[in-house]
Amino acid sequence: MRLLSLAKAAWAAEELHLRRLVRSRGMQAGYAAAAVIFLVMMLVMLHLAAFAALEPGRGPVVAAMWVAAGDLVLLALLAWMASRAGHDPVADEAVRLRQEAVRQIGDQAARAMVLAPLLRSQNAKKGLLGAAVTAVVVGLLSRR
Known about the structure:
The radius of gyration is 31 Å and the shape is rod-shaped. It has helices at 2-53, 59-83, 89-120, 124-142. The longest helix has 52 residues, at 2-53. It is 89% helix and 0% strand.
């Protein structure tokens, strides 16, 4: 029964890890998309500023340049947020939990392999010899 609960724990940890990973990548994609939007808006404003510069009055140019500067700041902020690799401690813990559960599943299976010949044998000597041989084989295989 413990083997089954360890398998369930490993499955749940892997599911949590993947869910958090997809969420993190989705948020990065959203920030990148917002940065692209602000980049386009900045280019539009720079075009409007250049057009306004051709006009005799200088008022609209200064205003358009300030808006473009604000867009540039937002672009830089969103691009920085999208580019940083998010370190998610919950996902890291889920990976560690999954690895520990899988290791314990292997340990439980190895114990079952050692005890199975002992329990099946009619003769105690054969059972102990079979258990010893199985333990040696399992020990050799687990070191690979």
